UniProtKB/TrEMBL annotation:
Segment forming the signal sequence: none
Location of the region described as Disordered in the Swiss-Prot/TrEMBL record: 426-446
PANTHER family membership: LIGHT-INDEPENDENT PROTOCHLOROPHYLLIDE REDUCTASE SUBUNIT B
Pathway it works in: Porphyrin-containing compound metabolism; bacteriochlorophyll biosynthesis (light-independent)
Binding site for substrate: 409-410
This protein's name: Light-independent protochlorophyllide reductase subunit B
Reaction catalyzed: chlorophyllide a + oxidized 2[4Fe-4S]-[ferredoxin] + 2 ADP + 2 phosphate = protochlorophyllide a + reduced 2[4Fe-4S]-[ferredoxin] + 2 ATP + 2 H2O
Naturally occurring in which organism (per UniProt): Kangsaoukella pontilimi
């Protein structure tokens, strides 16, 4: 464990909260010290929910450690039941409370509440948020999903959507419509929107749609083993993946595949004259494994981009992402340290970043436009409007989301070209895609120190001239110039070096 300014995932009890918050009739009693209650803000502020998460904290303090914290927890369980009357209770400990080893599961069971009490064993110092959500949903399903007769009409469960999930609310609507077009009913959507009583009906479906493997795969595999329900392997994000998903779902249902693509506009737009200048743009993709795999396919096969690099932060999917990276001819970045990711992006100098809220900040510092494709995200990525990632409308939304930073970046470049004009002069740096204020000129001392280490440095006039190069080839111009200088043993890049390199590579 180490301190970090940013983190891609919270501790596993935050994942448990995501499940509880998405469901109805479930309450989570969390054994936690005062100060671990910050997680409420994630849902009420970032997700803009109209009610706080269904969580009761014991909130013990330092002085309580000398008394009976176990009794404190038992009292919190009884009070939560009396106040909220949930259908089921889940109990666990935060990372700090885990150290005092009070055994929340055993304590809650001893109380004898007249509802199911489901203990969570979430190793806070080995695993993280997505594991916590996956394990919590699995335990709920394992305890509550008993045998059931199949529905008369072919039906499917949609598994994986949770509270604080990236566009989960809208993806459910889109995927339900896809299934209904084929003739497949939706039996239960879980955990989001489901109550414990709904989980008892899971086995009535003919198969399961695994929409988000990070948060639903353990439950899907258990339902397959225990109740003979196969689950889909394709996540319908992107045009090609949506078509593949429809074929897969229809095959599992024994029905003909039907797809109404009348709402789909992305293919026409991506092939239009206006967007052809985007062809071949180098992109770096990073986020959770599910959205990274989908985004890489869309980028290469549907938008005509070049995937210059990709990776994920959830190590449980490292093997599959490494295999995917090999198919794209790049080396995967598997890390939950944003500094590793920033280093990779700075080295590759892509024209566009497809990432998380963290990569959006990195892009601002590096002057590279970024589109958000995955959690973790900020409040702006929980829009009030309908904005899915899955299905046909999801493909339209993705096209807009990815192209707009590039288009705004081009506009920023034009503004920068005329910045010295009296009408456009502005001391601030670019504002739309995050370029920072102009760098101060390197001092003679800095130049001397960098020359000693053999580092290639850019003189102030050369940096200014480089900014006149359109943003979508600026990274390539920088790389070529630095390579040209290094080959000739030049440590300082001036305007002359920049244009000599341009002439050299134009031959």
């Amino acid at each position: 464990m180490k301190l970090s300014l940013w983190t891609y995932e919270g501790p596993p009890h935050v994942g448990a909260m995501r499940v509880a918050t998405g469901m109805k009739g479930v309450h989570y009693v969390l054994h936690a010290p005062q100060g671990d209650t910050y997680a409420d803000l994630l849902f009420t502020m970032i997700e803009r929910r109209d009610h706080r998460p269904p969580v009761t904290y014991t909130t013990f303090q330092a002085r309580d450690l000398g008394s009976d914290t176990a009794e404190l927890f038992a009292r919190a369980c009884r009070d939560a039941y009396e106040r909220y009357r949930p259908e089921a209770l889940i109990v666990g400990a935060s990372c700090t409370a885990e150290l005092i080893q009070d055994d929340p599961g055993g304590l809650a069971e001893a109380i004898g509440l007249p509802i199911p009490v489901i203990p969570l064993e979430l190793p806070s110092y080995q695993r993280k948020e997505n594991f916590g959500a996956d394990e919590t949903f699995f335990q709920l399903v394992r305890h509550l999903a008993g045998p059931a007769e199949r529905t008369d009409r072919v039906s499917a469960n949609i598994l994986g959507p949770t509270g604080l999930g990236f566009r989960h609310r809208d993806d459910i609507v889109e995927v339900t419509a896809l299934l209904n077009e084929i003739g497949i009913d939706v039996n239960v959507v879980a955990p989001m929107g489901a109550a414990p009583s709904d989980l008892t009906r899971l086995a009535a479906a003919h198969f399961n749609v695994l929409l988000y493997p990070e948060t639903g795969e353990a439950a899907a595999r258990w339902l397959e083993r225990t109740h003979g329900q196969p689950f889909t392997k394709t996540v319908p994000i992107g045009v090609g993946a949506t078509r593949d998903f429809i074929e897969e779902a229809a095959s599992l249902a024994g029905l003909p595949a039907r797809a109404d693509e009348t709402r789909l506009r992305q293919p026409w737009y991506s092939a239009s004259v206006d967007s052809t200048y985007l062809t071949g743009k180098r992109v770096f993709v990073f986020g959770d494994a599910t959205h990274v795999a989908a985004a890489a396919r869309i980028a290469r096969d549907e938008m005509g981009f070049e995937v210059a690099g990709l990776g994920c932060y959830n190590r449980e999917f490292a093997r599959s992402i490494r295999a995917l990276a090999k198919d794209y001819g790049v080396e995967a970045v598997i890390s939950d340290d944003y500094l590793d990711v920033e280093e990779a992006i700075a080295a590759l100098q892509p024209e566009l970043i497809l990432g998380t809220q963290m990569e959006r900040h990195i892009g601002k510092r590096l002057g590279i436009p970024c589109a958000v494709i995955s959690s973790p995200v900020h409040v702006q990525d929980f829009p009030a409007r309908y904005s899915p990632q899955a299905g046909w409308e999801g493909a339209n939304v993705i096209f807009d989301t990815w192209v707009h930073p590039l288009v705004m970046g081009l506009e920023e470049h034009l503004l920068t070209m005329f910045r010295e004009d009296f009408e456009f002069h502005d001391q601030a740096g670019p504002s739309h895609h995050g370029g920072s204020a102009p760098r101060p000129a390197a001092s003679p001392r800095d130049i001397s120190e960098q020359a000693k280490t053999g580092e290639v440095i850019w003189l102030a006039d050369a940096e200014t001239e480089l900014k006149k190069v359109p943003f979508f080839v600026r990274g390539k111009a920088r790389r070529n110039t630095e390579a040209f200088a290094a080959e000739r043993g030049v440590n300082e890049i001036s305007i002359d070096t920049l244009y000599e390199a341009k002439a050299h590579y134009a031959r």
